[in-house]
Amino acid sequence: MTGKPDNQRIVITGVGLAAPNASNLTEYREKLLKGQSEITTIDLRYMDPAPAGVCTFAETRYRKKKENKRGTRAGCISVYCAHEAVNDAGIDFSEYDKDKTGVYLGLTEHGTVETENEVYNISQFDYNTDYWTHHHNPRTVLNNPAGEVTMSLGITGPHYSVGAACAAGNAALIQGAQMLLLGEVDLALCGGISECVGSFGIFASFKAQGALAQHVDPTKASRPFDMARNGIVISEGGCIYTLERLDRAKGRGARIYGEIAGYAMNSDARDFVLPYGPRQSECMRKALAKGGLNPDDIDIVNTHATGTRQGDIEECRAIREVFGNSPSTYINNTKSIIGHAMGAAGVLELAGNLPAFEDNLVHPTINLDDPDPECELPNIVANRPVELKAVKAILNNSFGMVGINSVVIIKKYE
Amino acid sequence: MTRDEIKDVVLEIIQDIDEDGEVENLNADAPLRDQLDLDSMDFLDIVMELRKRYQLQIPEGDYPELASLSSCVNYLEPRLKDV
């Protein structure tokens, strides 16, 4: 891809995030390297408490309490992440037109939290719909989080959501890169957001499926690849990147976190919930081919694994198929530390690995005490970080329900 | 409810909508929108809150009556007299 002209190369120049253990990249990286989980237990309206990842960040740093109250939790997280990313990138919109800036946010779902809250609200009034809020529609339109970002930053270019289940964060990152390559926008704010912990229904549905993690110690509940894994830990969170074309980024002297070297998306076309390894390996190979890369060019594979029995096995099978003969590739899992941030998962997990281009460390997969033989992976990084001679390429997997797969490869910018 | 009580309720509702809004020194006869960061959705919040608290249905045609603090009190006084 480096043979391409600079205006056809897309780079990451800013990161804004809210994770269950951090509200900026420096703090996040430190905690990932330490394997510090801050997964807690939350009360859910109609069901038993469950482990969950909840974010603490400066909610009123970039907009008033009143606006947070009117908007959604997803909007609140989005506004915070977007401002943090723009600030991190050193963009003050003197170098980019706001009408040539696009906002593309990935969501697993949207409106579930707001609808549940409103049904609960009218239940207090004998289900009289006169008490249903006028805020319901603007809160639940699918573009809500991205739209709240444009209102807060005064961005007048396009904004919309990308719905791709738990592959949504990566899908939005790909969307942003594509819009830049097409010349539709000059600056893209893209990433993924999740407010899922506000919905009992999402927890209840995973529970009904036998896929909701349980553990007496919530920080040990998320345990991909471990024999004792028993499901997903649901988290809220967000991560937004600023993407620019390389010529423009270089022109303004931007710091470059990495270059989008390759990406791919495909569909299983078989099952509503069960993932399918062969299609996942195809997706990884397509992303490698797009970047003109071989498996042994990848130093870190950041897995999607969520801690479900079959899902983890399928992904490990796919990774063995692609990277089985690549002894220089190391593998980790971020969900073990932060839980599954759904629409934010792919981008949030990728962000946690980007600093490896500087420190050459692979953050650990925690809670991997008794590895499942069916999840055997070459070079899995378990429980403590591993230092490599150099990290030059990271491959991030992110898969979702109804059979959607996404892979993004980021190269170190040199 | 007395006029003062009604005024306190309206101010409390506004303060709940906008915790950062300064409601202490409002000009009671000037439009609330000119003095506070309130838009049409916020006025609907006031209408909804009055409905929840007092089962008061305010028809859309009467919304202009809520423009200032004084007009709110004038409008609500007969409707909340038995509360």
Word description of this protein:
The complex is a heterodimer of chains A (about 425) and B (about 80). The mean pLDDT of chain A is about 95. Chain A folds into two domains: about 5-250, 3-Layer(aba) Sandwich (Peroxisomal Thiolase, Chain A, domain 1); about 260-410, Thiolase/Chalcone synthase (Peroxisomal Thiolase, Chain A, domain 1, 3-Layer(aba) Sandwich), CATH 3.40.47. Chain A is α/β, with parallel strands linked by helices and about 425 residues long. The longest helix of chain A is centred in the N-terminal third of the chain and has 17 residues, at about 75-90. Chain A is built from 14 helices and 15 strands. In chain A, helix 7 (about 170-180) packs across helix 13 (about 345-355) and helix 10 (about 275-290) packs across helix 11 (about 310-325). With about 80 residues, chain B is mainly α. Chain B has a single domain (about 5-75), classed as ACP-like (Non-ribosomal Peptide Synthetase Peptidyl Carrier Protein, Chain A, Orthogonal Bundle). Chain B is built from four helices and no strands. Chain B has helices at about 5-15, 30-35, 40-55, 70-80. In chain B, helix 1 (about 5-15) packs across helix 3 and helix 1 crosses helix 4. The model of chain B has no long low-confidence stretch (mean pLDDT about 95). The interface between A and B is medium-sized, with 11 and 13 residues.
β-strand amount of chain B = under 5%
Give the class of chain B from helix and strand content and strand pairing.
mainly alpha
Which whole number gives the mean pLDDT of chain B?
95
Average of pLDDT of chain A:
97
How many structural units, i.e. domains of chain A? 2
Largest sheet properties of chain B: none
Low-confidence stretches of chain B: none
- Chains forming the largest contact: A-B, 11 and 13 residues
Give the CATH H-level superfamily of the largest domain in chain A.
Answer: Thiolase/Chalcone synthase
Overall geometry of chain A comes to globular
